[in-house]
Specification:
single chain, alpha/beta, 6-stranded mixed beta sheet, 3-stranded mixed beta sheet
């Protein structure tokens, strides 16, 4: 695993994944993306982990894709190595979104471009009130990537997605929470602790947390499941939990 991705396994069942390249505001390289994927694989293999916090070191969540990496890709985007490298960066967002335990992003400083993708890949977001939330692709002459539109659309309103991705609007954490792109906006110094507190609650029962996260994501989509399908989806997991609870009685 790259030194620029840190994985901490806490005794309370919470795993903390930290982007650790503060000198470039945690901009993603191919190596970082591959390490992030590896961290996710390690988390899913550890059944004692019941929740995950994703954060950035140095007071900034993620400033997007590393500019040097993007420039190199632009010189020969069809080259197999380049194509695979960009695919790894895309895959890293998706892999965070596929983590079996519930996930919380602790966003300080800002989430820009690919960093916004990573933020939106989690189940829940706690953001600093003054954090910069920016799509950022079109202003630098790039088409969005990494499923940017789908991630924006599934979390917030179509108007918000259009304002950010098409018209280059820049918002802060307070506005992100108002638009439904984050659960809470807090003073910067409170963000990490609030994210951990939420994660600790889910992590008390890792198996139940994982099963519930899987069901909720399937039901919410996109596309969302109709109610009759959701009834059937939830039935086996709820019956499992009833049986488990009864067998645990003294």
């Amino acid at each position: 695993m790259s030194d620029e991705i840190k994985l901490e396994r806490r005794s309370d069942g919470v795993a903390v994944v930290t982007l650790a390249a503060p000198a470039r505001r945690n901009a993603l390289t191919v190596a970082m993306a591959e390490a992030l994927i590896a961290a996710c694989e390690s988390i899913d293999a550890d059944r004692t982990i019941g929740a995950v916090v994703v954060r950035g070191e140095g007071g900034f969540f993620c400033s997007g894709g590393d500019r040097a990496t993007l420039a190199a890709a632009g010189r020969d985007p069809a080259a197999p190595e380049t194509y695979a490298g960009m695919g790894a960066i895309y895959r890293s967002f998706a892999r965070v979104g596929e983590l079996e335990p519930p996930t919380v992003a602790a966003v300080r400083g800002g989430a820009v471009g690919a960093g916004l993708n990573l933020m939106l890949a989690t189940d829940l977001r706690i953001v600093a009130e003054d954090a910069l939330i920016v799509s950022g692709f079109m202003p630098i002459g790039l088409h969005p990537g990494g499923g940017h539109g789908a991630l924006l659309g599934r979390t917030g309103a179509r108007e918000a997605a259009a304002a950010l991705a098409l018209f280059g609007e820049r918002i802060d954490g307070r506005r992100a929470a108002e638009l439904g792109l984050a659960w809470r906006a807090l003073p910067d110094e409170e963000v990490d602790a609030a994210a951990l507190k939420l994660a600790e609650r889910a992590a008390r029962d890792p198996e139940l947390a994982r099963r519930t996260a899987r069901s909720l994501r399937s039901e919410l989509g996109p596309p969302p499941l109709p109610w009759p399908a959701a009834l059937e989806l939830e039935r086996s997991a709820q019956m499992w939990s009833m049986r488990r609870k009864e067998l645990a009685q003294p």
